[in-house]
Q: What sequence folds into this?
């Protein structure tokens, strides 16, 4: 696994993992150190997942007003493309302040949406309040994102000093919930009650040769209609936050996952076929498998 670091008012960092033995910092040649104007931003929360289902993890991180929340699409071979403007996130986030954030499929349609815990710095800026409501952006599946925060419920509209945010299915109903910390106040639980007929699956990996939690395992899921999704086992998300290590996939209209391909950190490869959805599936790393090439 590689490591991206959003730096507050300093160039971002991207550490390329070389064989699990050492790292090289490649943010500048990978085009993720600065914004398109060559400037640094007040980077805070970051998530590093495949948001456009092309098999390559992308980077999305938060910042302060006028800086926008940058989205870098992974084009492979160590290069990223800034898609903040053409995705619609540029103009929709230019007046927002963000802390923790997450790429997560909230409506189980097979496309990862974006959640951000918001608030400005402690000191008010002119007439601007430093309390802000959280925001959620729906992935339209065509490279665009739509701010749907206004339809996320009355409780979602309440401004506060939001900071950390973690995602996880707290009641195992297949809809990912969000818990957000509040500075000098109790945390807020946003229970996902989106009315959808879409199916889902949650994978609970357990390593044997690999680490027990399966951290670093890479997963490709294919539905019967040929749609492919990619994710990895990690607890790392956003800012000062640690999430559920179970891996969630929305299956859309399909009640099954046609194929699940897992590459464990040990290099063992495992494939599961026709796995029923709408449930939590425990998967143990096999003793042997096809070696990673």
A:
């Amino acid at each position: 696994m590689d490591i991206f670091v959003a730096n507050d008012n300093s160039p971002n960092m991207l550490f390329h993992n070389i064989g699990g033995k050492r790292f090289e910092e490649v943010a500048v040649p990978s085009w993720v150190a600065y914004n398109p104007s060559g400037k640094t931003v007040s980077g805070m929360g970051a998530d590093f997942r495949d948001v456009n289902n092309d098999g390559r993890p992308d980077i999305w991180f938060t910042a302060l007003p006028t800086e926008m929340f940058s989205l870098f699409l992974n084009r492979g071979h160590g290069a990223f493309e800034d898609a903040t403007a053409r995705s619609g996130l540029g103009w929709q986030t230019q007046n927002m302040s963000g802390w923790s954030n997450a790429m997560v499929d909230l409506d189980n349609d097979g496309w990862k949406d974006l959640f951000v815990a918001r608030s400005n710095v402690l000191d008010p800026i002119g007439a601007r309040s430093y309390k802000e409501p959280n925001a959620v952006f729906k992935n339209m599946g065509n490279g665009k994102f739509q701010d749907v925060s206004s339809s996320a419920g009355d409780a979602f509209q309440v401004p506060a000093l939001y900071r950390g945010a973690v995602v996880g299915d707290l009641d195992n109903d297949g809809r990912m919930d969000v818990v957000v910390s509040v500075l000098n106040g109790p945390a807020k639980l946003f229970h996902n009650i989106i009315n959808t007929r879409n199916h889902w699956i949650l994978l609970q990996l357990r390593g044997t040769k690999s680490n027990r939690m399966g951290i670093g395992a890479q997963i490709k899921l294919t539905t019967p209609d040929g749609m492919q999704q990619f994710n990895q086992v990690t607890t790392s998300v956003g800012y000062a936050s640690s999430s559920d290590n179970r891996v969630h996939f929305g299956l859309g209209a399909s009640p099954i996952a046609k194929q699940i391909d897992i590459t464990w950190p040990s290099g063992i490869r495992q494939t599961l076929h026709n796995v029923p959805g709408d449930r939590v599936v425990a998967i143990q790393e096999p003793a042997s498998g096809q070696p990673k090439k």
Notes: The mean pLDDT is 94. Residues 17 and 62 are 24 Å apart (CA to CA). Residues 89-93 form the longest helix (5 residues).
